[in-house]
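Database export, one record per block. Field names are fixed; values are copied verbatim from the stored entry.
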Amino acid sequence: MARRVKVAFQGGGAKFVPLLAAAQAFQCAENDDKIEVTAVSGTSAGAIVACLYSARIDLKGVHRHLSDNPRPYLSLVSALTDGGLSRLSAASKIWMGTPLISELNAKIAYDRLLNAVGVRPPFPQLKIPTRVIAANLVTRSSVIYDSTEAHEPEQLLNAILWDSCGLPFVFKSHKMGNGLIVDGGICENLPADCLTDIKDKEGALIEGEIVGVSFKDTRLQVAPNTAFQFALALLDTAIENSMRRAKRVLSDRIIAIDTTIGTFDFKRALSEEGLGSSYKLIMSDVLKELENILKTPRGSSLVIRKDNRVGSNTELQRRMNRIYETQFARYQGYTVKFQSMIVIANSLRSEDYSGPREDVVLTMVDLAPCGSPLQCYMMGLGTSGEFIEGDVEGGATWKLTAPDGEEREVTVMPMIDEDLKTVNTSSVLVWFTPPLEPIVEENGGSYRLLQRDYLRGALDKLKDQSVKKEQLGFTWLRPVKAERAEIVAFVPDTPEMRSIILEDFDFEEGRVHVTGRAMNRPEINKYLSYGLAPEGMHPVGWVREEGLREGEQIGVQLVIR
């Protein structure tokens, strides 16, 4: 079955041509039923590519048109190429409030391209839900043009693209009537966030995991030494900051195009090389990258830092927590059949081990909705300095499996919970798209949510010859009872680690501690059947058969005899 994806295209001026090659690769994958593109977004040059894709035309035709007719487009941007304008002429235009390229000529070029490839519908009539990003210099915020929410049914596509591509000084100036709506790259050069809540014309949330199309950074970091370079550096700084935010959200779902074509390098972009061998190579590379993404589990991945307040929209995260607390935290229309914490202690392996040294920490929960559909589920990330020591390494991933074995999509958003005072702790809200339908049959199974995180030194005290003890545990903070709670550790399969005994451990004062017992062999063997056990590792486990109620905590101490 085709994998549903929503695609965000980065802006980039002359990099429109590499972006077109990437879009054509997506179209090839869609024609082969590997993916279904359910929504697109774009900024500047990425907006043009997104709209061409959304028109559902064959992108081969666009490539053919540019290859056969590059001259009119090169003529348009001649002011930006060698010999087009002297520095004095350019400075004079900017001072007088005249853009380097006239609005009339730019719109003629847009019309020429759109008409030549058969894209004539108004913006609201595009065939895929589309969002185009511009920037408003008055409100200091982004402007989102949404094809499903357009207030003007005949809203012209070229006018919207003109706003999104309106690079200050080049296409727009303060003296123009619409000069205060400018290039969206200043706010969101890779508009991935705006795809999380995009809806169709009936108001239903559109399904699909978000994939970003961006570029590898090949620029040399040099200090600006002219006024023009200084102005460009200011724009680049704003644009790069927005890029970093988007890349943190997308994590490993970014396809980075490898190209040396610069933002104003239109001659190379529209040359035989740019539209020939380089174009074909980009298409091939993007298809390979897309294949790698399709091999990963459906779901969501997110880099969570040691403190998710750093470099993040803290007010949005607090607001997300308030929404959860007021609308979802006390909801009890589901059961938790099983909750497990699993630690794979790679950091305890011998020095000659050549694999990854980070410890893997997994949280596995089986959910069975029994009332209304379950919309979301809060999960904690991180460590407490009292019972697991180590830094949150990030790169956390989530996987949701339905009762029938189908992998479902999730969207993960970080929250700030002021009540969580433990060290290195972050919270995330996992949204189910679509919501989890109730399990109507008594033995109808459950939805399994698996969270994977990475730590360093989760069980380091076991290596300390003066201690040889380590503790694991967690507290249950939900109104819904967890019917069974388990803690499992995979340690190196050595005589010393096989001598580990498990003891009950009360790790957090002020909580109701409940006891458990060591797992028997059949109970521990089921973790081997999950496919979680790495080679050369031995599992030990602790279980609370009676489960956990709100406020109760379970803990276990691992002791090397």
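Remark 1: Residues 259 and 532 are 39 Å apart (CA to CA).
Remark 2: The chain is about 25% helix and 30% strand.
End of record.
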